[in-house]
C-alpha cells in the first residue's frame, strides 16, 4: 500500500494509553514548551486519543519521504546565502500529507465501507513519534526523531485514526547504540544525549516557533539557518551520505530576503511552510544570519532594514548584526538608530552595538 500511496512506510497500531504521562508533565513543568502554549492543551488526548475520539480503535501512520538537504556551502559567508530545512522545499507539506491521507482513507473505505476515519498532520493532539514507533515505522533516536534503518529520518509523519481494529505490529529496536554524532552536531546544545531535547535551544524552534527576540547567547549558533535546521539529521549515520541535487530555494540570497515587504513575502512563501514564520520572523532570522556571516557586504542591506523596516523586531536584530560586523558604515547606521528610532529595544541594541 505504501508504494501505491507514494509514501516510504505505512504502519498500524491499536490505540491504548501511552505510558508517557509523567514524562510529559515534567517536560511541561520545566517550561520546555517555550512559546508553544498549545502543547499544554488537550494532554489527555495526547496520551490516549480515545479521550477525545472514543470511537477510534486504531491508528494508521504514514511516512512521506522528502529530499535530503544539500550539504553546507563552505562559501556561504562570501555568497551571503542562508539555509532552509529540506522538508520546507516545495508546496507546504501539510497539503501534500493531507492529500496522501485522504487517498489512504478512500482505500480504507473501499475495503470497509462503514469505516470511520480522521486524519491529522501534526496539527492535532497526537504524540506522532510515539505512534510511529508503535506502528513499527522506526525507533525514536537520540536526536528525538523517528529513525528507520533504510529510510533514515528524512520523512514526515501523518496519521489516520480509524474505528477499525488492528493487531499490534513489531516495534523497531533502538539502533543508536553509543553514537552521539547528533549531539555533537548541534551548535546550540539542544540535545542532551539522553534521547531528550530542550526545544528552547533548538534552531528549528528559534527560527520558527519563537515569536520574540532570539536570545543573544544563541544567535551565533544559528549560523546561516533562517528556517528550521537539518544538522542533527545530516550527522546521523542512518541517513548516510546522500548526493542531493542543489535546490536554490533552500539557499536563498539573504540581502534580497531582507528587502522583502509584506507583499513580496506573501508572493514568495504563501504556499510553503516558510509562511509559518511570518515576514518579521523570517527577516529577524535573516538579519542574524547576515550578522554571523562576518561579511561587510551585508552592511548596506542591514543598514536599510535598521533605518526603515516597519518591524521593531527586525530592526533589533539588524542592529545586533551591524554591531557584529563593525566598520564605519555600520556604526553610522547604529548611531542614527540610537538617536532616532522610536522603539526602546532598538535604541538599546544600537547602543550595545556601538559599544
What can you tell me about this protein's structure?
The protein has 355 residues and is α+β, with helices and mostly antiparallel strands. Helix content is 40%, strand content 10%. The chain has a four-stranded antiparallel β-sheet, with helices on both faces. A two-stranded parallel ribbon has the order 3-8. A hairpin with a 5-residue loop joins β5 and β6. It is elongated. It starts with a helix and ends with a helix. The relative contact order is 0.13.
Read across the widest sheet, the strand sequence of neighbours is 1-2-7-4
Backbone structural class = alpha+beta
- β-strand number: 8
Q: Mind describing the biggest β-sheet?
A: 4 strands, antiparallel
Instruction: Give the radius of gyration.
Output: 22 Å
Helices, by number, come to: 16
**How much helical structure, as a percent, in the residues?**
25-40%
Shape: elongated
Mean pLDDT: 94
Model regions low in confidence, pLDDT < 50 over at least 5 residues: none
Question: Which helices and strands, and how do they pair?
Answer:
Layout: H1 2-5, E1 9-14, H2 21-29, H3 43-47, E2 58-65, H4 76-79, E3 83-84, H5 93-111, E4 117-120, H6 128-134, E5 139-140, E6 146-147, E7 155-162, H7 181-185, H8 203-209, E8 225-227, H9 231-234, H10 254-258, H11 262-269, H12 278-293, H13 299-308, H14 312-325, H15 328-340, H16 344-354
Parallel strand pairs: 3-8
Antiparallel strand pairs: 1-2, 2-7, 4-7, 5-6
Helix pairs in contact: 12-14, 13-14, 13-15, 14-15, 14-16, 15-16
